[in-house]
Amino acid sequence: MNAVLNGVYINGAWRAGHASLEVINPATEAVLAHVSIGDANAVAEAVEAASAAFSAWSKSTGRDRAALLRTIAQGVGEQREHLMHLQSSNNGKPLFEAAIDVDDVIATFDYYASVAEAMDASQDRPVELPSTDFSARLRREPCGVVGLIVPWNFPMVTTAWKLAPALAAGCCVVLKPSEVTPLAELQLARIIAEAGLPTGVFNLVCGTGLDVGAPLAADRRVAKISFTGSNAVGVQVMQRAAETIKGVSLELGGKSSLLVLADADLDLAVELACGGGFFNAGQMCSATSRVLVADSLADEFLRRLQARAEGIRVADPFADDVEMGALINRVHYQRVRGHIQRGVEAGARLLCGGDRPVDLPKGFFIRPTVFTDVPLDSALWNEEIFGPVLCVRRFTCEAEAIALANDSDFGLVASVVSASTETAERVANALQAGLVWINAPQVIFPHTAWGGYKQSSIGRELGPWGLAAFQEIKHVIRSN
User: Fold this and answer.
1) pLDDT by residue (tens digit) across 4-48?
2) Best CA proximity match to 461, nearest among 410, 415, 405, 412
3) CA-based angle 371:278:265, to the nearest 5?
4) Max CA-CA distance within the chain?
5) Among 71, 185, 189, 271, which residue's CB has the most CB atoms within a 10 Å radius?
6) Is 285 a catalytic residue?
């Protein structure tokens, strides 16, 4: 695939950008392709195309939009295997994880197709008033042209979470994929381009945050920016958007906890800890990287966790028995290794992992890593590492576990493991997190909200809340 791919799609036409970037396979360090990238001029043209298309698209019926969303879902399904291989090659995740991603994309477009179909009947809903002298009705209208900026850790997934509800709402879109993982996104864009959307409704500009993301966030014709990524960049996006007082949704970082209560099933707890910490090589904002374990179980839990972590097969994403793949690139690999080294220097006890597998001299691989005795004031405990690093800490009572879990600048997700439904529900209710799993892996459905408390999020994605993020509320009141 070592060729230059067009990375700009505007007003129904693919075009080359002003420059190109290398796209790397993180498992082999080989160059997969060169992708042409856009700049501020391309962004301006894309926004212009979306603005021109908005009037007609915003007046289309929910039924018509639903049909197009289902066509996209069908197209993704038809290319499922190809998209999986692009995901694994470009992102470094195992093929079975890529399959989960592609299926999530299909489910999200299908879900918002159903939501769009229901919109026609619910429009102009009467509103009950305390006075019979007046009548009122409620309308939900698309907010306008929207800019979608998505990250590299879940290509296509975060795009679907934003794009499907935006199109369902009747918005026109300018999408900026991550310049690190554009290959699957570009193929998804080709599927969308062939689905029959009116010209200008969907536009895509590959490029860097500085060249593409910043001008997109600042453009006064863009009514809403939806961004997923780091907190540092989220602040910059919000600052740019503030210049023109536009709507902003931010899906940012996390430092989430898994609470293993005194009556927990230890085998289940170990599997959930490994899934929450090592899925996608820990490169997910929902990683439950802080594991809190009841003191009565801690010794046995650590013994089993160490054995399980050391047995995880780290390998090329296409290996038959692979359980964990590579980190995204050299810069991020070095960053995670630096966190691990500084954690050791700060006094945390390295139980296992922390280095490269001896049988993988190339690629950006790190063995699953587990720390204990991590100081509460250390970066390892408080900052998002975004790598396969778990920190385990003991607690003596339920109240202490809840306090430790809530003592964070973030509040995205949490997990609870307990044999008691009553206890688990009580603890879940006390946790400051947008989503809590009880005795369950990190399953996500398009029907339920995604987002968190504190510095993790502004707004919610998925479910009806994801649609509402791209809508304006209008009430019409008249005299009877």
Assistant:
1) 899 999 999 999 998 999 999 999 999 999 999 999 999 999 999
2) 412
3) 80
4) 79
5) 185
6) yes
Catalytic residue among 251, 384, 391, 461: 251
Please tell me which residue in 285, 384, 391, 461 is annotated as part of the active site.
285
Query: How far apart (Å, rounded) are the C-alpha atoms in residues 103 and 39?
Result: 32
Which of 161, 175, 251 lies closest to 466 in space, CA to CA? 161
Per-residue pLDDT, averaged over 108-121, amounts to 97
Does the pLDDT of residue 1 top 90, yes or no? no
Quick one: tokens of 113? 């197709």
Instruction: Give the pLDDT confidence of 450-468 residue by residue, as tens digits.
Output: 999 999 999 999 999 999 9
AA letter at 387: G
Per the prediction, the chain carries an average pLDDT of: 97
Spatial CA neighbour of 65 closest among 226, 202, 205:
202
Are 169 and 12 in contact by the 8 Å Cβ rule? The answer is: no
DSSP-derived 3-state class of residue 116: helix
Beta-carbon count within 10 A of 133 CB: 8
What integer pLDDT is reported at residue 2 of this predicted model? 53
Parallel, antiparallel or unpaired: strands 413-417 and 471-479: unpaired
Contact of 436 with 415, CB cutoff 8 Å:
yes
Compute, in degrees rounded to 10, the torsion defined by CA atoms 277, 187, 321, 25.
Answer: -80
- 394-445 pLDDT per residue, tens: 999 999 999 999 999 999 999 999 999 999 999 999 999 999 999 999 999 9
| Catalytic (active site) residue 251 | yes
Whether 9 contacts 203, CB under 8 Å: yes
Q: Which residues contact 391 (CB under 8 A, 6 or more apart)?
A: 289, 290, 291, 348, 370, 371, 372, 374, 380, 381
On whether the CB atoms of residues 374 and 332 are closer than 8 A, the answer is no
Query: Please, are residues 95 and 103 in contact by the beta-carbon 8 Å criterion?
Result: no
C-alpha–C-alpha distance, residues 174 and 158, integer Å: 14
Q: Which H or E run includes 339?
A: helix 330-345
Asked if residue 41 lies in contact with residue 198, where contact means CB atoms within 8 angstroms, the answer is: no
